[in-house]
């Protein structure tokens, strides 16, 4: 059956290439204006670099599960500066990444995000539009929110500019909001966070009893240095139902009511692939479709900021780390402070995240014995790659001496 599906996919691919060559194809475009207003909105001392441009393009592709299973996915990849836009569809078709490229911005920057749609190579019978929704982000303009009932969606071979002003630091996430259950399950998810202006303070600035040092980084504008960190590591939790993905690849009815995720992932990987460094090529065409590391590495004494998010459409997860206390400083892109400024951060040995939730967690490695620790889901039935044991949602935290 798999051979039939692959053969059918190849036939569809030939048809898609033929369609790509036709003269009726629209042009992929990008909106990226120059910063000419003379205002330093992000506070870095440079009035000409506040505008940031990103260009994401949607297509399909394949990713490897840690037990060797090859899954058909939808996803985004990034058109980088300097790439020829007239070649973007050809270059990024079958280029879906899981998760999508991480987007990180500074508070005060003005972001122009272009979303393009390359269509599906394996399923050219699908004409799904796409959008990007910044989940949890307080967007003042509904037209840029990505909700299909209040914004434009991006049809095949078309492009749509989005505009954002990130003024609230914290950990967010993004996903396609068209046919959201299907497209999120198929892999159209990514990590997103906003860094605070407090990072740009002059050295020697007092923050309560703490004094800011050159290069010191913070998760929030905390005013006292309590959210400082040395290394940040975004870890996106996700899960996939192989039957749903196989049905999509095989042009079969999609089993929404029977959706049962059996692969549990951190940054698109299951253990032991979570401990592999560097991008992973898929087993279909060799494209690097899983590019984001899942292993945490730090030197003893460093403070590690874990930016945790959950974009599973079916599961909640409880995350723990063997032998390392977790200090939770933020939840859903909000610093844990009361209305009067009361510190509500807390120490714990586990953090539970439902779908669409995020948490900012500090790991203080001072005094830890160098070695390998494990970050894992305490829902023990999720520590598997489908039916295989010792896999799933687990990764290594390596503390170097």
Indicate the CATH class.
Mainly Beta
Main beta sheet strand tally, sense and closure: 7 strands, mixed
Which CATH-level-2 architecture?
Answer: Sandwich
Distance between the termini: 51 Å
Number of domains: 1
CATH homology group: Cupredoxins -  blue copper proteins
Describe the structure in your own words.
The protein has 401 residues and is mainly β. It has a single domain, classed as Cupredoxins -  blue copper proteins (Immunoglobulin-like), CATH 2.60.40.420. Helices cover 9% and strands 35% of the residues. The protein has helices at 2-20, 88-92, 180-185, 242-249, and strands at residues 51-64, 70-78, 100-106, 110-117, 133-135, 159-164, 170-175, 189-195, 206-207, 210-211, 217-218, 228-229, 231-240, 263-266, 280-281, 288-290, 296-299, 303-310, 317-321, 326-331, 334-335, 346-348, 350-353, 358-364, 371-377, 394-400. The strands form seven sheets. Strands 13, 14, 18, 20, 21, 22 and 24 form a seven-stranded mixed beta sheet that branches. Strands 17-26-25-19-23 form a five-stranded mixed beta sheet, with no helix packed on it. A four-stranded mixed beta sheet has the order 2-1-4-6. The chain is globular and about 60 Å long. Residues 1-5 and 7-24 have low confidence and may be disordered.
